[in-house]
Design a protein that fits this description.
This is histidine kinase. It comes from Phormidesmis priestleyi ULC007. Its EC number is 2.7.13.3. One of its GO terms (molecular function) is phosphorelay sensor kinase activity. This protein is an alpha+beta fold. The chain is about 50% helix and about 20% strand. It is built from six helices and six strands, in the order H-H-E-H-E-E-H-E-H-H-E-E. A four-stranded mixed beta sheet has the order 2-4-6-5, sandwiched between helices. A hairpin with a 3-residue loop joins strand 5 and strand 6. The protein is globular, with a radius of gyration of 23 Å. The structure holds adenosine-5'-diphosphate. The site of adenosine-5'-diphosphate has 23 residues, from helix 4 and helix 6. Adenosine-5'-diphosphate binds next to helix 4 and helix 6.
Length: about 260
């Protein structure tokens, strides 16, 4: 035949290339682990001085009788920024924790229908939002860690709330296709352009940095959610149209196969 067989590496070369590839992957994993440990250490180190600064600012606010209006306003802004920094540090610690292979992520068998119902009733109580559910009539189960799953859904639902208007509805759906449990959070909010849909899962990426301050996010929520989902053997993707809304889809391995 006319295939240029000599273009393909010989079996002995393939073995060497595969070995080299494994070495590079191991090195990469080790660099990532060092980076994770460093971020975690920095975030922990910064927490104590920041909480002291926060305490001093609050103390000054309590003695605000002697302050002018302008000084009170500046103090208020400093406190808000200290709170924001505290949130960023906490999210960095959460991200490093989610990335750590030493932290076990598997857990108990959870009936996702009940789990989602509980989260929604809790969220409704605090947010007074129109949140609807479209849950499979059949029980869908996954073996996973409750706290981590709660974190993932909390990020997705609070994003849906943050990026849509008060009078719009947020829908949470649950289905199973073969061995995949599919949880979707759909909003009719601002939406995300197709060129930004991959980027929103990167740490600190915001579609509109000027709005980030007012919505109060850290830019780490989706990075944390995606890391946890992948550690659970699943994925998170987004489908969105600017001006129409977004649907975030979390896929987890389900227990028991359905067609
Ligand atoms: P943040 O703390 O800024 O919300 P996230 O990592 O959760 O950080 O989200 C990153 C960015 O993705 C947000 O700043 C926002 O621009 C965009 N985003 C996330 N969820 C939605 C959504 N439901 N609708 C529109 N934009 C979203």
């Amino acid at each position: 035949n006319s295939y240029p067989l000599n273009l393909y590496p010989a079996p002995s070369e393939i073995k060497v290339l595969a070995q080299r590839r494994n070495e590079i992957l191991t090195q990469l994993a080790s660099v990532k682990e060092q980076q994770r440990q460093f971020t975690n250490a920095v975030a922990h180190e910064l927490r104590s001085p920041l909480s002291l600064v926060y305490g001093y600012l609050q103390r000054s606010q309590k003695q605000s009788k002697t302050l002018t209006e302008a000084q009170k306003e500046t103090l208020g802004m400093a406190i808000a920024e200290a709170e924001r920094m505290t949130m960023i540090l906490q999210d960095l610690i959460d991200l490093a924790r989610a990335e750590s292979i030493d932290v076990p992520i598997s857990g108990e068998v959870i009936i996702l229908n009940d789990f989602i119902r509980d989260i929604v009733s809790m969220t409704k109580k605090f947010e007074h939002r129109q949140i609807e559910t479209e849950l499979s009539a059949v029980r869908i189960r996954a073996q996973t860690n409750r706290d981590y799953l709660m974190q993932v859904l909390d990020h997705l639902i609070s994003n849906a709330i943050k990026h849509s208007d008060l009078n719009t509805t947020i829908v949470i759906m649950l289905n199973q296709v073969r061995d995949a449990a599919i949880i979707q959070v759909r909003d009719h909010g601002s939406g995300i352009s197709s060129s930004q849909q991959e980027l929103v899962f990167e740490p600190f990426y915001r579609t509109d940095p000027s709005r980030a301050r007012s919505t109060g996010g850290t830019g780490l929520g989706l990075a944390i959610a995606k890391t946890i989902a992948e550690r659970m053997g699943g994925t998170i993707t987004v489908d969105s149209h600017p001006g129409e809304g977004s649907t975030f889809t979390l896929i987890l391995p389900a227990i028991g196969t359905r067609s």
